[in-house]
Structure formats: C-alpha cells, structure tokens
Amino acid sequence: MTDSATEHFRTALHGVGVTPATPFTEDLAAVDLDGLRRNIEFLVEAGATLLYPCGNTGEVAALSLDEWTDVVRVTV
After folding, report:
1. What would the pLDDT profile of 12-48 be if each residue is shown by its tens digit?
2. Could you say which DSSP state residue 2 is in?
3. For a Cys-Cys bond, which of 13, 32, 54, 67 suits 60, CB 3.0-4.6 Å?
C-alpha cells in the first residue's frame, strides 16, 4: 500500500470503533431489527464513529444472507 493510501485509511478509520452485537427476538427466531436500531442510535449518540455490523461477535454464523443484509442495511 502506498503512503497516501495508508494515510487515507488512517484518516477514514479514525475514531471509536464498535462491533455491535446483533439482537434477536426473545424466542431467538429472528433478528430484532427495532432493537438493533435502538442500539445503533445509542452507540452513535455516545460517540461511536465506526460501526462494524456482523463483525466479530459470533452470531454472524447463525444469520441467513437475508438477515445479514438486513443487519448491514439497518446499521448503515
């Protein structure tokens, strides 16, 4: 990677990064998208500048492609 590309990524990825856990409904049958929205709003209001949906919290292996897409869409 060139020095300018490295600097670009350092600038773009500067801040507080969070991998939010994906919430599920109480019966674990579906992703709780309303709960996810509330979590994301809370994190952004608390100062998070980078969000990594379906990141490294483990539940991504249990998500279907549609659920994964919904989580990313809601987070963005």
Report:
1. 677 888 999 999 999 999 999 999 999 999 999 999 9
2. -
3. 54
